[in-house]
Structures
1.
Amino acid sequence: MHHTVQQEVVRYLHTGKYDELFHNWPGDNVLVRCQHANAALRDSLLSTVRQRTASAAAPATLAGMDVAAFTRKKVEPMVRGLFPESEQSLVLNLLAGSVALATRRVP
């Protein structure tokens, strides 16, 4: 099925799927088509994220939040289900200390 470049971008933004050989993109060979597609898909994704997050605000509850405890609570069921009991504590501690929350700095 032949799609336009715009249709390929919309499909990528909605599904995360794309034609790996970029048949519908401009260019004489797969490398050139890949470069065009990579730039267009990346720019479209960044634009969409910026548009959707332009008015986003971090909840006030982040101030003073114990990120490690929050992370541990969220990942504990998964860790308990995926790892042997002898490794669970180690994995939980590693994950709890590996998360950082990024917030937008307001000037």
Note: The first helix runs from residue 5 to 15.
2.
Amino acid sequence: MRKFFAGVAGFVLGVALGYCLILAGWVLYMNVFDVFDREGAMTMGFAFTFGPIGALVAGIFGAIWFARRAGRKPRDVAP
């Protein structure tokens, strides 16, 4: 049960961070390379297509990573 809840928490955290990182990367790219997006079509494409796809991938990786970390036993500490 502990691994399940850790996986859910990892998925939620991965989705949130993945989406924010993709959009922040797009905004940074637009500012660095002086991209002109008057009507906002490219930004909407990233916000509603690439953002959710990347967030889903990041959420899956986050869930796997958190669940594996929750399943580990603590190491014995030498005195």
Note: Residues 19-69 form one domain.
